[in-house]
């Protein structure tokens, strides 16, 4: 077994791990990125999922000089139309209410991963360890990480370890004990929808008796469809042929996105909330999916993780790292600074997911009245926008980046 010395070992080179390393590019910190994927994965990634980047994420990427590259692959979401099927009342949340160019920017995960990877793949202070499966992590004169690569067992040592992937859950749960989990007994159904309406800048979020459906415009006449629903409805949808699928979603959405012409790349995955009450323990830390998994109702999972990465790297850059024990203080400081935003966004998404799913006279009327009040009250709409964008929580962090 060979031994090497790093400042940080990052376990997981997905979006969060890559973003974290981009934020520490060109520093004097030596970082090893340990990931199960081969090098070719980042060049030829086959992932048809899309995410929406918030304006705070735009500011962060702009501070890295990456926004111009990212923006070429994005479509703008200037408005969000929110309604519930078969009840009176709806509202439109508009970017102009907050004097923003857009409420969000939709991009494919594969394009974003390529950009983040290519920006750091040749950096001297960042080393990728591809096709490596982490076996265990132990504290011993720093932190030792044992992994297997090409059937050979190796150990690397560092001052600190950061987990940024949920695929190491078994190892994480042995170290970080205070975990909260909630199974929503729902699935998310995602697909690409093609309609006869082109170049829309309005996304739609519609609540039905059996779930929540979101339509986010892509380029030309394509849309990302995300439908969170119960398991029984999921089984029904998965049995439908193409014509049946088009009729099913056309009935849910009406003509809001025009006439549905095609549905492709349909995928299903379970919806759960999971987070650790404390994401820092001595010189080990959790980021991204390793720290928290949110219900997708607010489309904030990666945006929250990116703000986490930004906060942590800002603290690291300002810290004296001559003493390796400083990472314990760094991670403790990071947790204390991020606790409020993370907890409130977790509660916000959980509350929405729990309240809005299902039917009932009182619930439907409450939603209808709420939409009407929002539609008439610009101040309330602005506060909703700021909540979803994380502006209320990350103002000082983003202000620092702008300066």
In the CATH classification, which architecture applies? 3-Layer(bba) Sandwich
For the residues shown, what is the average pLDDT?
A: 83
Helix content: 25-40%
What is the beta-strand fraction?
Answer: 25-35%
Radius of gyration: 22 Å
Largest sheet properties:
8 strands, mixed
Helical run tally? 12
Shape: globular
Query: Separation of termini?
Result: 46 Å
Poorly predicted ranges? 358-377
Give a description of the structure.
With 403 residues, this protein is an alpha+beta fold. It has a single domain (5-181, 273-402), classed as 3-Layer(bba) Sandwich (FAD/NAD(P)-binding domain), CATH 3.50.50.60. It contains twelve helices and 19 strands. It has helices at 15-23, 55-63, 67-71, 109-118, 169-175, 231-239, 242-253, 301-318, 326-356, 361-376, 378-389, 391-402; strands at 5-11, 31-34, 50-53, 75-77, 79-84, 90-94, 104-108, 126-129, 132-139, 143-149, 152-163, 179-195, 202-208, 211-217, 222-230, 260-276, 280-281, 284-286, 292-293. The strands form three sheets. Strands 1, 2, 8, 9, 10, 11, 17 and 18 form an eight-stranded mixed β-sheet that branches. Strands 6-5-13-14-15-12-16-19 form an eight-stranded mixed β-sheet. A hairpin with a 2-residue loop joins β13 and β14 (211-217). α1 packs parallel to α4, α2 (55-63) packs parallel to α12 (391-402) and α8 runs antiparallel to α9.
Which helices and strands, and how do they pair?
Layout: E1 5-11, H1 15-23, E2 31-34, E3 50-53, H2 55-63, H3 67-71, E4 75-77, E5 79-84, E6 90-94, E7 104-108, H4 109-118, E8 126-129, E9 132-139, E10 143-149, E11 152-163, H5 169-175, E12 179-195, E13 202-208, E14 211-217, E15 222-230, H6 231-239, H7 242-253, E16 260-276, E17 280-281, E18 284-286, E19 292-293, H8 301-318, H9 326-356, H10 361-376, H11 378-389, H12 391-402
Parallel strand pairs: 1-2, 1-11, 2-8, 5-13, 11-18
Antiparallel strand pairs: 3-7, 4-7, 5-6, 9-10, 10-11, 12-15, 12-16, 13-14, 14-15, 16-19, 17-18
């Amino acid at each position: 077994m060979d031994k090497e010395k790093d400042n940080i070992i990052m376990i997981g080179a997905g979006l969060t791990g890559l973003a974290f390393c981009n934020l520490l590019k060109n520093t004097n910190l030596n970082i090893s990125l340990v990931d199960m994927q081969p090098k070719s994965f980042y060049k030829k990634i086959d992932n048809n999922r899309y995410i929406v980047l918030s304006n705070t994420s735009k500011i962060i990427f702009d501070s890295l000089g990456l926004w111009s590259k990212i923006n070429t692959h994005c479509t703008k979401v200037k408005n969000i139309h929110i309604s519930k099927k078969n009840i009176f009342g709806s509202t439109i949340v508009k970017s102009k209410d907050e004097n923003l160019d857009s409420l969000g920017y939709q991009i494919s995960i594969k394009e974003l991963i390529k950009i983040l990877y290519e920006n750091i793949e040749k950096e001297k202070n960042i080393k990728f360890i591809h096709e490596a499966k982490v076996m265990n992590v132990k504290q011993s004169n720093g932190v030792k990480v044992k992994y297997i690569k090409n059937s050979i067992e190796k150990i690397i040592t560092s001052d600190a370890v950061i987990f940024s992937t949920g695929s190491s859950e078994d190892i994480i749960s042995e170290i970080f004990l205070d975990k909260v989990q909630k199974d929503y007994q729902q699935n998310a159904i995602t697909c690409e929808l093609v309609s006869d309406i082109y170049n829309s800048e309005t996304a739609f979020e519609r609540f039905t008796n059996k779930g929540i459906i979101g339509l986010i415009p892509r380029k030309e006449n394509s849309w990302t469809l995300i439908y969170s629903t119960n398991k029984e409805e999921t089984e029904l949808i998965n049995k439908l042929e193409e014509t049946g699928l088009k009729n099913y979603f056309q009935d849910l959405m009406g003509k809001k996105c025009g006439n549905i012409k095609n549905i492709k790349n349909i995928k299903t995955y379970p919806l759960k909330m999971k987070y650790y009450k404390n994401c820092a323990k001595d010189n080990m830390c959790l980021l991204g999916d390793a720290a928290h998994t949110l219900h997708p109702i607010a489309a904030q999972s990666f945006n929250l993780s990116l703000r986490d990465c930004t906060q942590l790297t800002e603290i690291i850059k300002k810290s004296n790292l001559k003493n390796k024990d400083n990472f314990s203080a760094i991670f403790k400081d990071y947790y204390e600074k991020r606790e409020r935003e993370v907890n409130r966004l977790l509660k916000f998404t959980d509350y929405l997911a729990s309240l809005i799913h299902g039917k009932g006279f009182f619930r439907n009327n409450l939603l209808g009245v709420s939409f009407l009040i929002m539609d008439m009250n610009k101040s309330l709409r602005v506060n909703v926008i700021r909540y979803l964008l994380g502006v209320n929580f990350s103002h000082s962090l983003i202000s620092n980046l702008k300066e």
